[in-house]
Design goal:
Chain lengths: 97, 152
């Protein structure tokens, strides 16, 4: 386990009690440790919260990273824009038969 | 002087095992970033409502340790013109490292007697920077393609 390059782990924290709810925070972590290298990288992010009511019913509320989604969407739109303009200019620059 | 553990590497007064123990202790502290407590902050109470902040963490750490020692060759110096010179031993060691922890708020969890909801936190600066970069890239490619192929 300790010698693995990539380790991923999902962990649940201590519950936070509010009124008749209990909120369990859930986080996901990725650890990269290259063999022979001293050090490593850890990426840790929130995943969801589990809400448990007084009757024991559990509901999972995902934690959405809006910033990350927007960044990916913008980069994808830019990439798509470049491909589209390349296709348009390629078509218009073809010599007429 | 602490008792040397069996099998410990000790060269010229430098206890490498202890050095590596210190480094491993630092590494363990670094690995604590992977704890869920580092992602979710302590709840903030506002009346009946509890607000739990959450953040994404990226931690990078690198370090290195080194040590060396040397000793004079007694037999060789006794045979040489100046016997006794160069007798002894010495050594040195050192280490260094660096790291960085990047943290970014992701969402806040608002828990009230009415229910629990997750409010995302959008980092406008990062989004605007991504938009400017993408727009610049698209504009650059558009201009380059509109000029047509280069002819020499």
């Amino acid at each position: 386990m300790a010698n693995r390059i990539l380790t991923q782990q999902t962990s649940t924290g201590e519950p936070v009690a509010v009124s008749n709810f209990k909120v369990y925070p859930v986080a996901h972590s990725y650890q990269v440790k290259m063999p022979g290298a001293n050090g490593g990288i850890i990426w840790n992010r929130p995943v969801a919260v589990i809400v448990e009511d007084s009757e024991g019913n559990k509901q999972v509320l995902p934690v959405t990273d809006v910033t990350r989604w927007l960044q990916v969407a913008i980069v994808a739109a830019g990439f798509f824009g470049v491909i589209l303009s390349w296709l348009i200019f390629r078509k218009s620059s073809k010599p007429a038969d | 002087m602490d008792k040397q553990p069996e099998g410990a590497v000790k060269t010229a007064g430098i206890n490498l095992d202890r050095t590596f123990d210190d480094v491993n202790a630092t590494m363990d502290k670094f690995l604590e970033v992977a704890s869920v407590n580092r992602v979710y902050g302590a709840p903030i109470e506002v009346g009946d409502v509890k607000i739990i902040p959450s953040a994404e963490n990226l931690a990078i750490l690198g370090y290195g340790v080194g040590a060396g020692f040397g000793s004079g060759n007694l037999e060789a110096n006794e045979e040489a013109d100046k016997p006794g010179e160069g007798i002894g031993e010495g050594g040195g060691g050192g280490g260094g490292g660096g790291g960085k922890i990047l943290s970014r708020p992701v969402a806040v969890i608002i828990a009230s007697p009415e229910g629990v909801r997750v409010e995302p936190v959008a980092d406008r600066t990062k989004v605007i920077m991504a938009a400017i970069t993408a727009a610049g890239f698209v504009a650059g490619m558009f201009l380059r393609m509109s000029r047509g192929p280069k002819s020499f």
